[in-house]
């Protein structure tokens, strides 16, 4: 049986949801500033995770995952702003926040595990 990469899958589908949110914000809300920022950070998470799959070392992998962690945090901030200013309805906000929080938790656990493994080799 094949091993499913949960964070890879979750970040990919999250990027699709962020793309759909971007389309909604541009077309329905005429919002062009925050929408671009959240599109960039929200889709970067999965792209960076894909990069990390081919990291040159465990330290490089940890570094890339740390960047993905920063991008998901930036996305969470953007979602909070959009919700607070009334551009993102509560139900959509709750769903996206739940997914982004889960992605953040998974990435954080991966980083902790890699740090532990790196320190064990020293």
In the CATH hierarchy, what is the architecture at level 2?
Up-down Bundle
Rg is 16 Å
How many domains is the backbone divided into? 1
Low-confidence stretches: none
Full CATH superfamily name: 23S rRNA-intervening sequence
Using the coordinates shown, work out and report the CATH topology.
Answer: de novo design (two linked rop proteins)
Shape: elongated
Going by helix content, strand content and strand pairing, the class is mainly alpha
Q: Report mean pLDDT, rounded to a whole number.
A: 95
| CATH top level assignment | Mainly Alpha
Pfam family, one: 23S_rRNA_IVP
Organism: Aquirufa rosea
InterPro entries: 23S_rRNA-intervening_sequence, 23S_rRNA_IVS_sf
Protein name: Four helix bundle protein
Task: Describe the secondary structure blueprint for this structure.
Layout: H1 6-28, H2 34-52, H3 58-84, H4 90-120
Helix pairs in contact: 1-2, 1-4, 2-3, 3-4
Write a concise synopsis of the structure shown.
The protein is an all-alpha fold and 122 residues long.
Give an overview in words.
- With 122 residues, this protein is mostly helical.
- It has a single domain, classed as 23S rRNA-intervening sequence (de novo design (two linked rop proteins), Up-down Bundle), CATH 1.20.1440.
- Helices cover 82% and strands 0% of the residues.
- The chain contains four helices and no strands.
- It has helices at residues 6-28, 34-52, 58-84, 90-120.
- The longest helix is centred in the last third of the chain and has 31 residues, at 90-120.
- The protein is elongated, with a radius of gyration of 16 Å.
- The N and C termini lie far apart (34 Å).
């Amino acid at each position: 049986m094949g091993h499913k990469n949960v964070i890879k899958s979750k970040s990919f589908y999250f990027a699709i949801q962020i793309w759909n949110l971007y389309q909604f914000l541009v077309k329905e809300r005429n919002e062009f500033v925050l929408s671009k920022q959240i599109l960039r950070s929200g889709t970067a998470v999965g792209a960076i995770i894909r990069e990390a799959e081919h990291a040159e070392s465990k330290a490089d992998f940890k570094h890339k995952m740390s960047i993905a962690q920063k991008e998901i945090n930036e996305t969470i901030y953007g979602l909070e702003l959009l919700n607070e200013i009334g551009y993102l309805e509560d139900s959509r906000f709750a769903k996206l926040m739940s997914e982004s929080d889960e992605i953040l938790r998974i990435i954080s656990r991966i980083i902790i595990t890699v740090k532990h493994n790196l320190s064990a080799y020293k």
